Amino acid sequence: MLLDLGKALSFLISLLSLYPLFFAAFFVPGTHWQDRLLLASDKVVLSALCCFVSGILFSTSEHRQSTLTAQEVFATLPVRLYVLALGGMAVLFLSSWFIDTYYMPLFWKNLPH
Predict the structure, then answer these.
(1) Could you tell me which of 17, 20, 3, 7 has the C-alpha nearest to residue 82?
(2) Helices (H) and strands (E) in the chain — how many of each?
(3) Does the structure show a pLDDT above 70 at 63?
(4) d(CA 38, CA 1)
(5) pTM, whole model, 2 decimals?
(6) Are 28 and 36 in contact (CB under 8 A)?
(7) Residues 6+ apart with CB under 8 A from 27
C-alpha cells in the first residue's frame, strides 16, 4: 500500500517538475532565447531526476526479487512522459526561436510608425 502511495506521489511530483521547465523556456518576458535556454537547463536536469526516480518506483514491485534494468525504467509512464514532453518542448522552443529570429523582423518592418 505504501509503495502505491509513493508511486502516485512521485508521479505527481514528476508532472509538477515539468511545469517550471515549460515556464522557463517560454514565459520569461524580456529575455533573449539564449538566456531562456540557460534558465531552462537546470530545470531540465531537475525534472529528469524527478521523472527517473518516479520511473524507478514504477518499475519496482513488492514481490520482485530480481534487479532492475534500464530498459524497464525507460518503459515506465513517468520516463516516457518526460521524454515526450522534453522532445515537444525542444521542437516548440527551436521553432519559436527560428520564427522570432527570421520572421518577426519582417513583420515589424511593415508596421506604420
Answers:
(1) 17
(2) 5, 0
(3) no
(4) 40
(5) 0.83
(6) yes
(7) none
